[in-house]
Automatic annotation (TrEMBL):
Location of the 3-keto-alpha-glucoside-1,2-lyase/3-keto-2-hydroxy-glucal hydratase domain: 282-510
GO-annotated molecular function: hydrolase activity
Upper taxonomic lineage: Bacteria, Pseudomonadati, Bacteroidota, Flavobacteriia, Flavobacteriales
Entry keyword set: Signal
Taxonomy, superkingdom: Bacteria
Name of the protein this chain belongs to: 3-keto-alpha-glucoside-1,2-lyase/3-keto-2-hydroxy-glucal hydratase domain-containing protein
Protein's organism: Flagellimonas eckloniae
Signal peptide: 1-19
InterPro entries, alphabetized: AL/BT2_dom
Length: 524
């Protein structure tokens, strides 16, 4: 009986606390968009971006988020960019945010503009868009400039800093200011400078996060990079969710958000959020970002210790050639001892493989147009350094500034049918492509300008493979190559070290039990 009474009392206390903080929330309706920089200058965004994701979860308003971008300073500083990636990618996972609404401006600017335009043009008087701008104005200006002028009046842009972010320009990439945004016909509101509130507070005031039993709050506390706990940009979102123009609180701080964060569950949903589309569900991560569990190494020298130097794991990436190239690498000989692959332990047949890559600065060879060369082998049945399988080529020809990522390579022992135009560049047979009958090993992808080469930006790659039926190569959302009647029709896959420093990350896969007709993917 006593235990039952204690349980009832605790439940009443929890209900009372819940009701208290819910009464603070006075959401005005509409939808939410948020933009952060953090990849240059403003280290407070490390924690503010994570805090905004936590607040959306804690207030129960994450379904109202239609756009969230980060790293919107167009002059990137890589060390800060990596911090923003951690804040956002882990924040999305910790607080169960729909990842389809998240955009990395450094790699997805065009997609971010398209998404903002799509969402903004849904706006009406009764369904406005609240746009919290926590960085320079250039990228937000590009978003709004793309929107139908008739719809801009339903966008309210919120700022809280009257000088640095609003007036910050850095030609030629960044030339637009807060005044330029005003001129586009949106509504603009500058609330009180949140750096002067308890959103920027003494660290000891939030030690309750550091000392919490909830690992999510511990993580959130540790995202702070300043001498004070500065999540000042989150004050804009708080102003919106507490009423906006109808009494939104611009004088809040840690005392206000503490009960909301304390109520967040420490149970973390694994994998992708449940509100993703059917096409996005079913992917699983196969590189854990911490070590190479589930993978094994092969290298030309057969020296496993050397292979461990060539393939290292750091900041949730596989870093190839991350050291200073010691003499033992036998470089610039045309027979580098470091040619190798990191192979999956499991074999696959019908799947979509997604990953990202970017080039580094180091060159591991003295070649000409093949200086930046790597690749992903799939359907591998003989795991040699030069395996039997099919290759999704990753290459940039710096002598002609031409992309070759997505090219097909057919090593000895593998085969497929390939269709091309008269210039021997991929062209689907439905579009007039002719079956290529020459016995050549390299088959060029269709040309595209949608790629990142030596600019420290990531490329998003996708390989769609359906057993022995067909393979589709995609680069940054575009289909660039395709093969039919594959031999082999199943096998492991491997990521290559070859001629230059390269980074791989976000390696994930979705398997299928049955063949999906190629037309489904060609229409997307």
């Amino acid at each position: 009986m006593k235990q039952n009474l204690i349980a009832v009392v605790l439940a009443l206390i929890a209900t009372s606390i819940n009701a208290q903080y819910k009464n603070v929330i006075n959401y005005p309706g509409g939808r939410i968009a948020i933009s952060h920089d953090g990849n240059n200058y403003d280290k407070d965004d490390y924690v503010a971006a994570a805090m905004n994701l936590a607040l959306l979860e804690g207030t129960g308003l994450k379904s109202k988020l239609v756009h969230f971008d980060h790293s919107n300073h167009l002059k990137n500083k890589d060390s800060q960019y990596m911090e923003m990636l951690e804040s956002v990618t882990k924040g999305v996972r910790h607080f169960n945010i729909d990842s389809t609404k998240i955009f990395d401006v450094q790699t997805q600017l065009d997609a971010a503009i398209a998404n903002f335009k799509k969402e903004a043009e849904k706006s009406t008087e009764n369904n406005p868009l609240w746009f919290c701008i926590g960085g320079p104005m250039e990228v937000p200006w590009q978003y709004i400039n793309a929107v139908d002028p008739e719809k801009r009046k339903f966008i309210t842009c919120i700022s809280h800093s009257s000088w640095f972010n609003e007036d910050h320009v850095s030609p030629p990439e960044m030339t637009h200011t807060w005044e330029d945004i005003k001129a586009l016909g949106v509504k603009t509101i500058r609330i009180k400078n949140q750096n002067k509130t308890e959103w920027n507070t003494k660290k000891e005031n939030v030690f309750w996060m550091r000392d919490s039993k909830n690992p999510k709050l511990q993580w959130l506390y540790n995202r702070n990079a300043k001498k004070t706990f500065d999540s000042s940009d989150s004050g804009m979102l708080w102003w919106v969710v507490t009423g906006a123009e109808n009494g939104g609180n611009e004088n809040a701080g840690w005392q206000d958000y503490k009960p909301i964060l304390d109520a967040i569950s420490d149970n973390e949903k694994r994998g992708l959020p449940e509100n993703l589309t059917t096409e996005e569900k079913g992917f699983k991560t196969i590189f854990n970002g911490k070590n190479l569990d589930g993978w094994y190494l092969k290298i030309r020298s057969r020296d496993l210790e050397l292979a461990k130097k060539v393939f290292t794991v750091e900041n949730e990436m596989i870093h190839v050639f991350g050291d200073s190239f010691p003499k033992e690498y036998n470089l610039n000989t045309g027979a580098n001892d470091t040619h190798g692959l990191i192979y999956s332990e499991k074999a696959y047949s019908k799947y979509i493989l997604r990953f990202e890559y970017k080039w580094g600065d180091r060159i591991a060879n003295n070649f000409d147009k093949w200086q930046y060369d790597a690749g992903v082998y799939y359907h591998v049945i003989n795991d040699k350094v030069w395996p039997t399988g099919i290759e999704y080529q990753i290459r940039y020809d710096h002598t002609t500034s031409r992309n070759h990522t997505g090219d097909l390579i057919r090593p000895s022992g593998a085969d497929y049918d390939w269709f091309c135009n008269e210039e021997e560049i991929y062209l689907h047979p439905n579009d007039g492509g002719k079956l290529y009958t020459k016995k050549h090993w390299l088959h060029f992808a269709s040309p595209t300008e949608n790629f990142n080469a030596l600019n420290n930006k990531w490329n998003q790659c996708e390989i769609i493979v359906m057993g022995d039926q067909y393979a589709i190569h995609k680069l940054n959302g575009e289909i660039v190559n395709m093969a039919f009647n594959l031999e082999p029709g199943a096998g492991i896959f491997g990521f290559q070290s070859e001629t230059a420093e390269i980074f791989y990350r976000n390696i994930r896969i979705k398997e299928f039990d049955e063949i999906i007709p190629a037309e489904k993917f060609l229409k997307e």
